[in-house]
Amino acid sequence: MALRLAHGKIAQVLPQAAFESLPASALPVTDLDGSTVLSAFVDPHVHLDKGDLCAAGLAPERDLFTAITRVRDDYARWSAEELTRRMEFALRSAYAHGTRALNSYCDWSVPQGPLAWRVLQDLRTQWAGRVDLTITSLAPIAELDDATIAATIAATVAEGGGVLGWFIYPGAPMHLLPRAFDLAQRHDLRLDFHVDEHLDPPQANLGAVARLAHERDWGARTVCGHACVLAALEPAAREALLNDVAASGLGLVSLPWTNLYLQDNGSGPTEGRRRTPSRRGLLPVHEVRARGIPLAFASDNHRDPFFPGGDLDPLQTLSLAALAAQLDEPIRDWADTITCQGARLLHLSWDGVLREGAPADLVIHPGRDSVEVVSRPTRGRRVLRSGQWLAPADALPPDFRELDGLRRAA
Ligand SMILES: [Zn+2]
Fold this sequence. Notes:
CATH superfamily of the largest domain: Metal-dependent hydrolases
CATH topology of the largest domain: TIM Barrel
Bound molecules: zinc ion
Distance between the termini: 50 Å
CATH architecture of the largest domain: Alpha-Beta Barrel
Shape: globular
Structural class: alpha/beta
Number of helices: 15
Low-confidence stretches: none
């Protein structure tokens, strides 16, 4: 295949034979020698506000709720300057890896309102056209019990052009869920849920979200992340739940880094010595895709108490998923999970399909097939944005040493 680029867009997509038969032209030609060409990446589930808290002195935890508590305890030490440093570091990394759009959650700390929300708003303006930011509020669903707080969150999100997000956890007050849909419909907002980030079938709540999204005809505007519990359900129960999700039209996001790290991680009062996990927090992606449910992979946490690793690199995420979920042909058959599917879930203006007229926003990897790409996902990658290679200073992720002294500077 050959692409002709002009004015920052794909002007023509040609089969190789047709390209070779064209008369010689004065235009520069780059021979990619069989390299893999992908649409620039979309990362629909990232926590920029928490990113690199390890560099700020917080330790990784092995349990979701302990990590949540550690981060909440840390809110008081967050400043606009420190948040900006951590978030810009992440955005520069994502941009270097070839990401063109990402969705960041923003913890909604009640009652003072999120400082991080304002910082993210500023960064969205500054980074527009490089990494287009969607910003999603993230509050526990229990906050819907206070009509004033809930209305304030929804109004702020609507004013800031964001997405209304809620955290649904085991034992959550699910009778409040209809209020999330009420607010979304009143303000014409998309909805996003962190749901079922656990492996305890009796505590599954994804079905309630799916059924309500279906009832309210809001499925195409609803995304659910995690849903790890699907991995723990008996086959018949899993099938029934996936059928409800498919009927609703909502999309799912799988977060392999954090959920392979956090789930069945041997934490808790009865646990002592380290042990090897046997139950994995992996969304059953084959079964999800088989039902036509929109599915994207995403980064989730990076270098914070939830996960001491990650670098906001969708191609590395897909390479991990290829192993963890046993994906055959991850590049040929699953690359859309880090490109087009995320674009669909975020309602972006470009769907990520490489066609004539599309932006020339490309990631080019020297690997010629799935085996070569996932074996060396980070080696030799080049990123083209609006038809131009990234400048050398932008083409490498920043050095971790830039984060030294984070807390002292804050
Ligand atoms: Zn998350």
